């Protein structure tokens, strides 16, 4: 059997990891219709539907990344598939970390900045409507805003080679945050409101300033996790092949040809 197609414990571990991640990300996406009316109006009737939300876009790209990772586990010598998976990982992993870093502090500070409050009858005065703060069930909240980042970061650190030099964090962060900024502005112009109440209270300049800050954070996350990857490689003396994954001791496997070693 060729080295690149050998079934190793590392490859089996990667397949199991990606399988569990796929199940959880699929669970999260399938829970979206359940919460379509969480704020008292049907988000699915709006332009962009659930995909106005950065969280949902992150889930969708996270599942796509995981599907390609599983495909690479099954077909480890497919250079094109590995290349596309690496590009997806460079986009999705820092985006999911950014989502988690933004979401949980804001949630603790004021949940109404993330999810619009809903109108409910005042129990003390049934003729009066009051605004009620909305919270997602904890399991769903974790599957939306924590699990994707955890799975993707650990996947990158344990099973993935370092990003190649032709993937530039500054370019990826600038393009992705600008794309979402334009998309959310289009959705708001058609729906008459922003998906996140936080964006409603900001001026145009403040919103684009927020997007710029997010771009810087995105780049910092990519750089930080990449440096952590290199530190782990150095400590454990790991060598990588961009197609087959970890080489040296054959933890994930190797293919014939020149190895791209992390320094």
Automatic annotation (TrEMBL):
Residue spans crossing the bilayer: 12-30, 50-74, 86-106, 208-228
Major localization listed first in the record, in broad terms: membrane
Keyword field contains Transferase: no
GO cellular component: endomembrane system; membrane
Classification via Pfam families: Far-17a_AIG1
Top-level taxon of the source organism: Eukaryota
Record membrane topology: Multi-pass membrane protein
Keywords on record: Membrane, Transmembrane, Transmembrane helix
Keyword Membrane: yes
Compartments it resides in: Endomembrane system
Stated name of the protein: FAR-17a/AIG1-like protein
Classification of source organism: Eukaryota, Fungi, Dikarya, Basidiomycota, Ustilaginomycotina
């Amino acid at each position: 059997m060729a080295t690149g197609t050998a079934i190793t414990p590392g490859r089996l571990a990667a397949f199991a990891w990606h399988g569990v991640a796929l199940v959880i990300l699929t669970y999260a996406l399938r829970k979206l219709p359940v919460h379509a009316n969480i704020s008292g109006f049907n988000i699915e009737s709006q332009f962009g539907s659930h995909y106005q939300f950065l969280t949902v876009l992150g889930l969708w790209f996270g599942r796509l990344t995981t599907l390609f990772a599983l495909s690479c586990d099954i077909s480890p010598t497919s250079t094109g598939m590995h290349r596309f998976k690496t590009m997806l990982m460079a986009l999705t992993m820092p985006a999911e970390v950014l989502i988690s870093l933004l979401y949980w502090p804001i949630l603790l500070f004021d949940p109404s900045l993330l999810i619009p409050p809903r109108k409910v009858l005042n129990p003390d005065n049934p003729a009066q409507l009051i605004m009620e703060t909305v919270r997602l069930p904890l399991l769903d909240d974790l599957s939306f805003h924590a699990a994707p980042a955890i799975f993707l970061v650990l996947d990158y650190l344990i099973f993935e080679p370092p990003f190649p030099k032709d993937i530039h964090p500054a370019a990826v962060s600038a393009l992705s945050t600008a794309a979402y900024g334009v998309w959310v502005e289009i959705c708001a112009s058609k729906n008459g409101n922003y998906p996140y109440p936080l964006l409603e209270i900001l001026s145009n300049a403040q919103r684009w300033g927020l997007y710029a800050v997010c771009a810087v954070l995105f780049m910092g996350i990519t750089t930080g996790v990449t440096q952590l990857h290199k530190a782990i490689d150095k400590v454990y003396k790991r060598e990588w092949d961009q197609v087959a994954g970890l080489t040296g001791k054959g933890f994930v496997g190797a293919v014939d040809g020149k190895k791209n070693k992390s320094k």
